[in-house]
Amino acid sequence: MPVKKGAEIAPAKGKLGVLLVGLGAVSTTFIAGVEAIKEGLAEPIGSLTQMGTIRLGKRTDNRVPKIKDLVPLAKLTDLVFGAWDIFPDSAYDAALHAGVLEKDLVEKLKKPLQKIKPMKAVFDQSYVKRLSGTNVKTGKNKLEMANQLIAEIAEFKKKNKCDRLVMIWAASTEVFMKQHAVHRNLDTFEKAMRENHKAIAPSMVYAYAALKSGIPFANGAPNLTVEIPALMDLANKKGLAVCGKDFKTGQTLMKTILAPGLKSRMLGLHGWYSTNILGNRDGEVLDDPDSFKTKEESKLSVLEYILQPEVYPQLYKDFSHVVRINYYPPRGDNKEGWDNIDIFGWLGYKMQLKIDFLCRDSILAAPIVLDLALFLALAQRTGMKGVQEWLSFYFKSPMTAPGLYPEHDVFIQLMKLKNTLRHLRGEDLITHLGLEYYD
Is the C or the N end of the chain the one with fewer CB within 10 Å? Predict the structure, then answer.
């Protein structure tokens, strides 16, 4: 466990500033959703922090408080929003453009949404080839632009009278990148920023600025971003919580639910074919092969880790796993994930599963952003630093401590998350081993 059992948790007093990189469909759906909930226009469906409960002690104790009543989380009324984006549109105009929410609802929230105007973004089209915008920063090098971000973070905190801040990357997927020599330590990283080295992506500039400013960082895209030695060392030295990567929403969420079920019954897998169609900005970005490569790596790793073909070769060795993403503008944010799953059972007899998940990408992502903001702030107030593996529940490609493989089984992830909360509150962990009828 990252901290001792029953550790003291600082109260969630004052305002919590949520700084979002990207003010597109996900961010505006999140912000509008919080505002709608505050106004009594909607319920926080999909949010574990707002609606989830947690069992404490024996089943016969009947102690099942809400998570938000067990641990001190920031209240929705204490959240303040800020953002950077390559387009200058306010959250109101961006929400209308995204088309996720009904116009009537957006109009009811016009006043608070219009107040949120994005700061100029750190952006380089070579990392996100299908997008271009006018609301972008200029500077002689990447370190200078990082310092501009640091100044904006400080100004935002002061202007909005925030006690605490968190930063969440909710922008587009960058081109595929691997760790480079310049990522080795902070000195080489900062030198590379001064030299405008191509191995320093815009998302890394944001993560650097967040950590230098003393605020935790969550990566909602499959970008490399904070998962490099230089920034991980910085997070640990400054005692900051980080987590990522890639919000787990549609098709991959289904995989992390279904694959553990197949494995639990020792059913074999010949192949899993997945295709997606979506028409939002994310779909347009992923239409570029280099950005798709980043997403593909994130989505393909899930089944290998859950099914463990090296442990169960008779069931899962050499299964075929294919992932496709197709940009189809008419679909907008209403993504369709279609899966054909070829399985086999007793005596090798073949069977199939067909799944057609007609989901709303940003509707699934918005409560993830809320939970991460609140849980990251909790981790920070508790003194939990470095990678927060207990938040793997929310990610397609969870970050881990060095040398550990990521856990993808959604049920194990949820158990880890809840047991972490129990541990923080000095409660016994739930292992389901107790003979509780006889206690």
Answer: C
Residue 220, classed as helix, strand or coil, is coil
**Other Cβ atoms within 10 Å of 316 Cβ, number:** 21
287's tokens: 């239409």
For 74-106, the pLDDT digits (tens) are: 999 999 999 999 999 999 999 999 999 999 999
Q: What is the pLDDT of residues 2-52, one digit of tens each?
A: 588 877 899 999 999 999 999 999 999 999 999 999 999 999 999 999 999
Cα–Cα nearest to 343, from 262, 256, 409, 264: 262
- Among residues 322, 362, 273, 261, the alpha carbon closest in space to that of 25 is found at 362
Q: Which residue has the higher pLDDT, 366 or 291?
A: 366
Stated as kind and residue range, the H or E segment containing 120 is strand 119-120
Structure tokens at 195: 């030299």
Tokens in use for 32?
Answer: 């509008």
Given pLDDT bands bounded at 50, 70 and 90, which one contains residue 286?
A: low
Within a 13 Å sphere around the CA of 334, how many CA atoms are in the beta-carbon half? Answer: 6
Q: Cβ atoms within 10 A of the Cβ of 262, count? A: 21
Which residues are 56's β-sheet partners? Answer: 63
Q: Which numeric CATH code is attached to 251-358?
A: 3.30.360.10
Residue 33 Cα to chain centre, angstroms: 17
Rg (C-alpha) for the chain, rounded Å, is: 22
Residue intervals in the chain for CATH 3.40.50.720 = 15-247+362-424
Please state the φ and ψ torsions of residue 76, each to the nearest 5 degrees: -60, -30
15-247+362-424, superfamily in CATH? Answer: NAD(P)-binding Rossmann-like Domain (3.40.50.720)
DSSP state of 405: P
Which residues make up the CATH 3.30.360.10 domain(s) of the chain?
251-358
- What percent of the chain is helix, strand and coil (3-state, nearest 5)? 45, 20, 40
For residue 126, the one-letter residue type is S
